[in-house]
Amino acid sequence: MTLLPPSSLSRRRLLQAGAIAAAGPALGASAFAANAPLQVGGLPVTCNLTLPVACMAKAAAGGPLFEFSKYNGWPEIKESLMAGRIQAAYMLAPLVMDLADKKIPVKIVSLGHRSGAVIMVRTDSTIQKFRDLAGKRIAIPSRFAVDFLFLRKMLSRENMTPKDIVIVEMAPPDMPAALYAKAVDAYCTGEPFGAAAQRAGYARPLRMTRDEWRNYICCVLTVREELIAKDRPLVQELVNYVQGAGIWLDQKQDNRNKAVTIAAGRKFFNQDPNIIRFVMENPTDRVTYGDLRMIRSEFEELMQLSIEAGTLKSPVAYEKYMDESFVKAARAAAINL
Length: 337
Hints:
The protein is α/β, with parallel strands linked by helices. Helix content is 46%, strand content 17%. It folds into 2 domains: 11-114 and 217-328, 3-Layer(aba) Sandwich (D-Maltodextrin-Binding Protein, domain 2); 117-212, Periplasmic binding protein-like II (D-Maltodextrin-Binding Protein, domain 2, 3-Layer(aba) Sandwich), CATH 3.40.190. Helix 6 (146-157) links the parallel strand 7 and strand 8 (166-169). The longest helix has 20 residues, at 232-251. It is globular and about 55 Å long. The chain starts with 10 loop residues before the first helix and ends in a 9-residue tail after the last helix.
């Protein structure tokens, strides 16, 4: 698998990263912590929106910094985190469970958001109710994605199974065009890739997690255990700012508008701000950020769904992949943007 370097790294940091990778993950952990801002991997998706807000707020406040490192997909972030090339990232919760079970030294330290996944169909489609998807081609990002668990959950409610539909794995940015071209009949993914097609006028939501699965968990802030051992204060500061960003985003629409401007910039998502704004407004709780509590029963439900989907082979002990100490000690940072 080819790793795409994060766009936010300068040439100097790329050279540094190459030297560190050659020396091995253990040296990588020390060198990154000692010589540069903490690079936190993330995707240009609204489920990761608390990260750009946290990075900008921390930069405005001064002190040790953390920076958004943009990746193009979950496999790239996973490989980079496994190898120790980055020490922190927003990751899919079931992937973290799987990594921890395979003795990769990572821990979830905070949620990143709530809700934010949609199942989209064409505006002119005859699909009006969920059972109309029987026999249809439906795109998902990956069988390891929580979006797929959402789709499975909806199928189960209708006494259907994945065998009743045709599942196609596809990169989320390609989904709107595939729906437009009728290469698929529907797609299930995180935002803003549902909003992009809806705003363009040729797609509508069939199901949204905001309506069907309010405690939906997808992206979680994950750190390597070496970083926890080496610099607990830095991890705590990162959690404080992520938690603060979540509260700030849900306080008022003006804050979300500011976040849109921040995230749309080249340093972060590099996307059309109008699409991100559409996610923030249609409706305003399409993605939520204020409730970032880590509740054991919710993670265990997610784990059970992953076992049923075959993406986890067996139960993983909560303590193996979770470190609640930072959230328990968190003092949500003031976001002054």
